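An instance follows:
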Amino acid sequence: MNSADIISRGLHADKLQENELWWSGPPFLVNNEYPGVPMRLVDGDLTSKDEDMISSELKLSTANQVCVVTHIVEPLDVINNCSSFTKLKRIVAWCKRFINNTRNPLNRTSGTLTTSELSQSLVCIVKNIQRTAFIKELQSLEKGTSIPNNSELVNLCPFIDDDRLLKVGGRLKNSNLLYNQKCPLIIPAKHNFTFIVINYYHALYFHAGAETILSLIRNRFWIVRGRNTVRKIIFNCIICKKINSKGSNQIMGQLPVARVTPTRAFNRFMNTFTRKMPQQMREMLKLLCLNSTTRRRLQVVPDNAQINAKDYDMQDTKLLHP
């Protein structure tokens, strides 16, 4: 039926002149109707061999279908874009109020934000952060198994509380501390929420040191590798750099000749007079400073005494005002 098979399979030249398929093509090209598919008639019944062959061809392979449902929590953009801890809590609180008012139009909430709403907004924020940062740990704890040994939270003995939050375990269960102090919330080190929490406590407690800020934060949050993270934030604080900056030390001038020339005692000295200190005393105090050495001498002078220029070298005398 295919005229190209003649050349591809080979044919003598004398036979090519008489080949109608090569020169005219297939016969159905000339006919008005396209030929139908010829039917193969089977004589007699199928044998067992034919039935086995057909069944082997028609045998369907069984496949096990497994459906896995995963809950992927996407991080909130407002957490990564906000730079204020209090502002972030208020934004999430207003969003939660809007959702609740939309779902329950008969029980709408109005007015200023309450303390419970701000607390619930913080729970929502931390839950979203933990679901994106500690996925393996949360899955292991929800299944009732231990967390992986290579996890950063192994030494913290974490557990999941009633709000489905990841908290620090420990040995402070019988202490008199508050529940949030005994079991702080776990947050990752490299996260924008951690940075704004550190900056909030750092500004709230008047730019205190790293250890002070870390101890205050641990009353509510436990930062993974918190000490290094707090030190990094405080090191980049501009206000702390201005406060802790050291002034430049000026280079002192040359000492006078009287200070560097050795002489006998009390040959060159400086007199320093002060006013009377207590009201009952009517004397003045004279301080003699030797120029050639570092020795000092105190001498009491009556208040009514007159300082004579002949007795003291006035060039080396200083009067100190009270």
In short: The chain is about 40% helix and 10% strand. Residues 312-322 have pLDDT under 50 and may be disordered.
